[in-house]
Amino acid sequence: MARLVPLADARQLPAWRRPIALLFLMAFAMPIGFSVWLALLNNFVVEAADFDGADIGLLHAIREIPGFLAVGVIVVIMFMREQVLGLISLVMLGLGTAVTAKFPELTGILILTFISSVGFHYYETVNQSLQLQWIGKERAPQMLGWLMSAGFTVTFLVYSVIMLLWEPLGLTYNTVYMVGGVITAAIAVFAMIAYPQFEAPTPQLKTFVLRKRYWLYYALQFMSGARRQIFMVFAGFMMVEKFGFQVHELTALYLINLMINILVAPLLGRIVQVYGERKALAFEYTGLVLVFLAYGGVYFLGWGIVVAATLYVLDHIFFGLALALKTYFQKIADPQDIAPTAAAAFTINHIAAVGLPLPLGLLWLVSPGAVFLLAAGMAAISLTLALMIPRHPVPGYETRFVTPAATPAE
User: Fold this and answer.
1) Are 207 and 348 in contact, with CB atoms under 8 Å apart?
2) How far apart (Å, rounded) are the C-alpha atoms in residues 193 and 206?
3) What is the number of structural domains in the chain?
4) pLDDT digits (tens, 9 = 90+) for 179-194
5) Which residues is 197 bridged to in the sheet?
6) Full domain range(s) for residue 101
7) CB atoms inside a 10 Å sphere around CB 347
């Protein structure tokens, strides 16, 4: 049986075996499998299965179903520790990615996408919970920024290898999917063996939690899922369908984006720490309104490839500020609510993510620009919601509509 180590005692372990080190190791492992899948996806589905906009919308709707079912994590952690579930989920993500190219037709792609997505979404749910339990409130914004940067760095390395070696070595989809997926799974297995199981000071509730006072957090999560899904499904697909990007060209765009985000991510954490969640999220959503309107301009006004590529990079930078949603919840939450609320929030985040891709894929066939204009409207709603966050949120002061007796000055 694995050794249990209280969080307070973990500082006595070697630095590489402490909770923060494990968070970084998982932050390294997940992007290897997921980035390989994402980097090749648009080209693979077009070349192997002749996907159109409706097909890609269906694929992403299937991919988001496990996110919608993330509330099931609450049931699983009744029988399994969160740390173990997170690592098992990484193994599932890796193995699902590894065999993706073995089934180059619509049905096979959809089934394997679902399997790897279960691993991805359950990992992300548990990972968010562990981050908020293992990192103190004072350090959280900056540390979350560094964890984001670590993930971007690994993704950058993955994309660099694909871009540099794809043509010279004549790499195939099967080879790259297999190598990336196996590495992710192997790192997760190593972490199961090498690390003790860490025990946070506050036991987590293992029941469904949906509290009225968290309503603003739920609303922001819902809108975040809707906006993010439009970008995930259609931004990269646009570069292939409209501008004819090849694998190495699309990967080069990802690399430029990642180089910038590796440097920017720690700064984003610092921005949240200094200016607070309300200002950080308001800045993010204002930027996203403008970016999505400009995406529409690519279609309605005929703006070219340079504008589209620039918008792709800006999009990622603004989305990075979403870490402020995590720290906002950490500040207002009862400590025992973190795990069940992370699961509930993931499900809420994916309600729109499951429902939107297919109808938007059909809309894409008629007017791609209209899809991005709809995203701009969603970002504007998010901006309105973000302005309701207090400057110093705490339990009992979750929105600006609540004014308890002792409230920090606005």
Assistant:
1) no
2) 26
3) 1
4) 999 999 999 999 999 9
5) 4
6) 8-386
7) 24
